[in-house]
Design brief:
By secondary structure, this protein is mostly beta strands. The chain is built from three helices and 26 strands. The chain folds into two domains: 89 residues, Sandwich (Immunoglobulin-like); 196 residues.
């Protein structure tokens, strides 16, 4: 009888109940303070837990301390992210939990990825409010239209070519990037955003929604978005070919240095110089926009095109 009782106790190393012990996990730190530890709170006392029992993605494990119902795992964080945590221990609930961790503030997060597409997919899961992320493009890529929007979080996503020139090309009709509210998309030197290799499009290559921002730094380019006339798309509001569409007064386009929007066209020659097609930048001011709100001239370095009253200069924005 005693042997049977001993075996029953060993069958659940986390406690004396037949049910697996549940737990919660919390991280210290925040947007302005680095995370240094994860705290595990168990529904009942556990014993003998080791750091190796705890699986964490994206951070480095340190020492595990504590006992009973509360344990603390030291961690080193290199990128602000929503990480996955699980415990591989008999008697403790299985499955994955997620918790937000924060790196030391003041430096950008370089997303570790072999491709732009996979880096953007990573952001969909891991983006943290206030994060500043850098994606280094390593080759020419063709991707689907992508909306950069992260559940109301405010963050920046910088695309850089490193020390090379790379083209990110649209693979189907739509906007290559739609910049959502709270998101800033800087394009650094070496990055060229390009329209469809074949066929016509119905939307601006980059669509900047209210509360979003596109920043074109020196050496970045937006090109090759050929537009066409289709009443069905106009009726649904998707009528803006060309380089960049900026929504209302709260959308922002900042052109800094020798960045360029060029090489757009309209499938119908009669549309080349109309407001909705073929232009470099289109500012949508209301549901009945004035065609005079089309701008295809250059702003000087650092000019914030949120204020478009005195945009002057030549080059940079290609004349149609």
């Amino acid at each position: 009888m005693l042997a049977l009782l001993v075996l029953a106790g060993c069958g659940n190393l986390a406690g004396n109940n037949d049910e697996d012990v549940t737990y919660t996990v919390a991280a210290n730190g925040g947007p302005n303070t680095a995370t240094t530890a994860l705290t595990f709170t168990f529904g009942s006392a556990v014993s003998g837990l080791t750091a190796e029992d705890i699986n964490v993605t994206g951070v480095t494990r340190g020492a595990l301390t504590g006992g009973g119902e509360t344990w603390t795992l030291e961690i080193t964080v290199t990128i602000t992210a929503n990480i996955t945590v699980s415990i591989a221990r008999n008697g403790i609930e299985s499955g994955q939990k997620q918790v937000m961790v924060y790196k030391t503030p003041g430096t950008a997060d370089h997303i570790p990825s072999d491709s732009l597409a996979s880096a953007l997919a990573w952001l969909d899961v891991n983006a943290a409010a206030g994060g500043e992320y850098i994606i280094t493009i390593k080759e020419n890529e063709t991707i689907e239209p992508k909306t950069l929007s992260y559940d109301g979080k405010t963050l920046g996503v910088t695309l850089t070519g490193g020390n090379a020139e790379w083209i990110v090309r649209l693979n189907t009709a739509g906007s290559l990037f739609t910049v959502g509210s709270g998101v800033t998309l800087p394009l650094d030197a070496g990055v060229t955003l390009s329209g469809l290799q074949e066929g016509d499009n119905y939307a601006a290559l980059v669509w900047v929604n209210e509360g979003g921002a596109l920043v074109m730094n020196a050496g970045s380019k937006i090109t090759g978005n050929r537009s066409f006339y289709n009443p069905a798309f106009i009726d649904s509001g998707n009528r803006y070919g060309g380089g960049v569409f900026v929504y209302h007064y709260a959308g922002t386009l900042i052109k800094s240095g020798q960045s360029t929007i060029y090489g757009r066209d309209a499938a119908d020659a009669a549309l080349k110089n109309t407001a909705s097609f073929g232009h470099a930048v289109y500012r949508y001011l209301s549901w009945n926009p004035s065609f005079s709100d089309v701008y295809n001239t250059t702003a000087g370095p650092g000019v914030n095109l949120r204020s478009l009253s005195d945009v002057t200069g030549t080059g940079g924005w290609e004349q149609m």
